[in-house]
Design a protein that fits this description.
Layout (H helix, E strand, L loop, with lengths): L1 H50 L2 E2 L9 E2 L3 H7 L2 H33 L5 H7 L2 H4 L2 H11 L6 H8 L16 H26 L3 H9 L4 H12 L1 H16 L3 H6 L11 H11 L3 H36 L1
Length: about 325
């Protein structure tokens, strides 16, 4: 016993020593990005939360006056904030749902054995590689009422009688921005769903085919359940991306006309840097962040409940 213990001890010490080295090496690798993340995100968020409780403007930034939660109480009674909240939720829900439906349809097509499949998979990524600012300028030109390509095509085909003021209309401006956002973000959604589909074993599909499952049954009972984790991840990323969307709205419409495309991001910027009310602008940002965290938590909770029911069923 003593001899075996003496033999095991050096190996145990060496194993612990190696593990400790790996731990310190991991800390050494993670420390710089974590510090950078704290400086670029953590401190501004804390400063914004602190600023939201005070009456402070861009003109007198060093003069902080406690306003007894007036910034928050004023927002809940302000029609402009409630309208921006509705616009944000409508925009996010519309774009994410359309992204998912069109993305999974496109992924199913690209997952089939077709000619020039590799070329199509590469070409579909082009819109996603274009910067958001360039996308906004491109779609502004397409939606231009006098010489825009979209109006020209629709009028030539007899779909509309006269050119539309897409970005100046109360009812068309938000859908126009949604189309631009969908055009840019759809390639990411479809590519990620396609990658998830290619990770599904072909043996599962062969077994379903032998059992006589139709393509529709295969999609609903095999493809979608096995894509659950991928769907959860990509849709959550899309929700976060669109919830904080600023460049498309600011460049294409500036939040107009008559605040019809003013989201929480646009309202926060206007309040802080146009109206010069930094305190209320920070309060909008805090509520915006809390709402995003709540939606993300609820979305993850919804998926976890579904997974629990599925596990219980099995």
């Amino acid at each position: 016993m003593d001899a075996s213990a003496k033999l095991e001890k050096p190996y145990r010490v060496a194993w612990l020593s190696s593990r400790a080295k790996d731990r310190w090496f991991l800390i050494f690798l993670l420390a710089p990005p974590m510090v950078l993340l704290l400086l670029t995100l953590g401190i501004p968020i804390i400063k914004s939360i602190y600023m939201s409780f005070f009456d402070v403007t861009l003109i007198r930034m060093n003069d902080y006056k406690w306003n007894n939660f007036a910034n928050y109480s004023h927002l809940w009674t302000e029609k402009e904030f409630m309208q921006a909240l509705r616009t944000t939720l409508l925009y996010v829900a519309g774009v994410v749902i359309l992204q998912f439906v069109l993305g999974i349809f496109l992924a199913l097509i690209l997952n089939q054995v077709v000619r020039m499949r590799k070329l199509l998979r590469t070409a579909i990524l082009i819109p996603w590689t274009i910067p958001t600012i360039v996308v906004a300028l491109l779609w502004m030109w397409l939606f231009q009422p006098q010489y825009g390509v979209l109006n020209y095509i629709l009028v030539s085909w007899g779909i509309i009688d006269k050119p539309y003021e897409w970005l100046s209309s109360l009812h068309l401006s938000l859908p126009a921005v949604m189309v631009a956002a969908l055009w840019r973000q759809l390639p990411f959604m479809s590519t990620m769903l396609l990658a998830g589909m290619q990770g599904i074993s072909t043996e599962v599909y062969e077994a379903a085919k032998i059992d006589g499952a139709s393509p529709r049954q295969t999609f609903w009972y095999i493809t979608l359940p096995l894509l659950k984790n991928t769907i959860k991840t990509v849709t959550l990323i899309a929700m976060i991306e669109n919830f904080k969307m600023f460049p498309l709205f600011w460049i294409m419409t500036g939040g107009g006309p008559l605040n019809s495309t003013t989201t929480l991001a646009i309202l926060s910027y206007k309040t802080a840097f146009v109206k010069l009310n930094l305190g209320e602008g920070a309060a909008i940002g805090v509520l915006w962040l809390l709402l995003l965290l709540f939606i993300s938590w609820g979305y993850n909770k919804l998926f976890s409940i579904g997974e629990g029911k599925q596990a219980g069923g099995h």
